[in-house]
């Protein structure tokens, strides 16, 4: 399925972090914000493709490439997105000069620099869209108590610093 896009349509997906859920006891899972420990933006490896529907319409699609989680993230989840470092952006994006065999060394877990922060379950509700979805959860508090807001949570304008 991904042979063509890996050869011809590689992309980078910028983000300040991503979410993952750690399976808990019973039905409840704990959401985590995975982000660079020092802040900033990561670039996740992706592939894009255009799906041609039988009715003639086109749908642009994309997928993130995942790999086994590093030891830090494995405590939360068994996989993580492939993160491309800035010095490898050109090699990843240059589909004319670099074939899949030339970029296979980039498809490994980020060894360091990420942190996993337990956050409230607000992130799991589509109606919640503000920065408060990233409020760290105090896993020792009862459900009735509200977590304290910390000041190092990136705000909505941090996303635009890339541009």
Structure explained in plain terms:
The protein has about 160 residues and is mainly beta. It contains three helices and eight strands; from the N terminus they run αβββββββααβ. A three-stranded antiparallel sheet has the order 1-4-5. Strands 2-3-8 form a three-stranded antiparallel sheet, with no helix packed on it. A two-stranded antiparallel sheet has the order 6-7. The longest helix has 6 residues, at about 5-10. Mean pLDDT is about 85; it is low at about 140-155 and about 160-163.
Work out the number of β strands: 8
Output the structural class. Answer: mainly beta
String of helices and strands:
HEEEEEEEHHE
User: Based on CA inertia axes, which overall geometry fits?
Assistant: globular
Q: Nearest-angstrom radius of gyration?
A: 18 Å
What characterizes the major β-sheet? 3 strands, antiparallel
Task: Figure out the total of helices.
Answer: 3
Spatially, the strands of the biggest sheet line up as 1-4-5
**Uncertain parts:** 141-157, 159-163
Strand content: 25-35%
Straight-line distance between termini? 32 Å
Please state the average pLDDT score: 83
Question: What proportion of the residues is helical, as a percent range?
Answer: under 10%
